[in-house]
Design goal:
Elements: H1 2-23, H2 33-57, H3 60-74, H4 79-99, H5 105-114, H6 116-126, E1 133-134, H7 139-143, E2 171-173, E3 178-180, E4 185-187, E5 192-194, H8 199-234, H9 236-239, H10 252-288, H11 290-305, H12 309-323, E6 327-331, E7 379-383, H13 395-398, E8 407-408, H14 423-432
The protein binds zinc ion (2 copies).
One zinc ion (ZN) binds next to strand 3.
């Protein structure tokens, strides 16, 4: 049972560290134990090691480590892709030959259908995508997809690297060295940015990987259980739980000790009958399938909320500032809104048509072209340093906000997200653009 225990401890630790490393930075986990563990892993432990190394070797060891860490996290490289594909390939080539003779024909067919999918969707996510990368050829088209909401995105900002106006919802990626349309995040798993064109393939990758891994665990359970039961009946007495002398049978310790004992006992029976090839890989699958599924659930939540990972961070910043009492919401001037809200699709009217009565300077027309998006923002948000209503407005807000309309807001519920069309429309937008 020692082997089973070691394998379980190792797999649970790796799964936990992977979970914290992948999920811990998400705004949803700010101010939670997972967020703390993430900071521990990414900030506190490296800086403690750095201080120790500075004392011992004048920083020689950690300099190399930081260079490697920087390369892994902030450079374009296929190492994580190779690791992932290598892991899937190695697991499949150990697992399938060991169990193939025990599989029924419909399971063999399903394996043929499910196994290639993560490879295909990873390729589609990682491939250079003309809808995701913004360049001078598609820039005009990219500007027409989304309006500036004047909460997360403002018109008139130029990318200092690409030298064109940043379309709403886009972000420059310093790793891919390009502006990315509807930027979600740069993903080291696919060695690419996820944006307007390839986000759907990333979702398909998460779904297909979760299904493949869960199916692998199920196949191991299905085929090895009859063998494990036979083994158990033969050596039953070895696996019976014997409480520690003097322990109280109703205590929580005894309860968990007993559960842990039987889990280890069954794992070791499965390892006996299936070996590392079938049972070890099956156990790894059992413990890791929630990882891609959890990440997929998070992205379904983002789609439901009408935001990207990049935007969820911006919303979380607004939420923190609202809690501090320094955020004010102002109404838009009607004459800066579209003229006819019921007939805006494909015929959107520019926000400034020369009818503005504002005396403040108006940026040139080409900063905010017509968009095909059905909604537009009816208000603006402003942070103030003092917690008092803004007296003078920043120039990018001044020409669109009604003066004197600013009211303090304490929660995001008061703010409209124009990029949220409702779950089904958001999903269609993600899948079919
Ligand atoms: Zn750029
Ligand atoms: Zn990128």
């Amino acid at each position: 049972m020692t082997l089973a225990r070691n394998i379980i401890v190792f797999t649970v630790t790796v799964s936990l560290v992977t979970f914290v490393a992948f999920f811990g930075r998400l705004p949803a986990f700010r101010n939670t134990p997972i967020g703390f563990l993430h900071r521990l892993l990414i900030v506190y432990i490296p800086s403690a090691l750095r201080n120790l190394d500075l004392k011992l070797t004048n920083g020689r060891i950690t300099n190399g480590g930081f260079r490697l860490g920087h390369y892994l996290m902030h450079d374009k490289h296929p190492l994580v892709v190779i690791f992932f594909l290598g892991l899937v390939t190695a697991c499949a080539s150990l697992f399938l030959p060991a169990l193939w003779h025990l599989l029924r024909p419909h399971h063999k067919l399903l394996v043929f259908l499910l196994l290639p999918q993560p490879y295909i969707f990873l390729y589609l996510s990682a491939k250079k995508n003309t809808q995701t990368y913004i360049n001078t050829l598609n820039h005009a088209e990219q500007m027409r997809y989304y309006p500036y909401d004047r909460v997360l995105y403002y018109p008139g900002h130029t990318c200092s690297t690409c030298k064109f106006l940043k379309p709403a919802r886009s972000k420059h990626c310093s790793i891919c060295k390009t502006c990315v349309s509807r930027m979600d995040h740069h993903c080291i798993w696919v060695n690419n940015c996820l944006g307007r064109g390839n986000y759907k393939w990333f979702l398909a990758l998460l779904l297909s990987t979760a299904i493949l891994i869960a199916y692998g665990a199920y196949l191991a359970y299905l085929t090895l259980t009859p063998l494990a039961e036979r083994q158990y009946n033969k050596y039953e007495r070895w696996y019976i739980y014997v409480p520690k002398p003097g322990s109280n049978s109703s205590s929580w310790f005894t309860y968990f000790d007993k559960k842990g004992h039987y889990f280890l006992a069954f794992t070791s029976i499965y390892l006996d009958v299936g070996g590392i090839q079938a049972s070890g890989v099956g156990l790894l699958a059992l413990l890791t399938w929630p990882l891609p599924l959890g990440l997929l659930a998070y992205h379904v939540y983002l789609i439901w909320a009408g935001m990207t990972t990049n935007e969820s961070g911006k919303w979380a910043d607004w939420s923190d500032d609202m809690a501090d009492g320094v955020v004010f919401l102002g109404q838009r001037k009607e004459d800066t809104m579209r003229e006819n809200r019921s007939d805006t699709h494909m015929h959107a009217i520019p926000l400034r048509s020369g009818r503005s009565s504002s005396s403040s300077p108006i940026p040139p027309e080409d900063e905010e072209p017509l968009t095909t998006w059905p909604l537009e923002s009816r208000h603006v948000l402003v942070r103030t340093r003092t917690g008092q209503a803004p007296k003078t407005l920043p120039s990018h807000i001044k020409h669109v906000a009604k003066e004197g309309s600013f009211e303090q807001v304490w929660s995001l519920a008061a703010v409209e997200n124009v990029y949220d069309l409702g779950f089904w429309d958001n999903l269609q937008e993600v899948l079919f653009n």
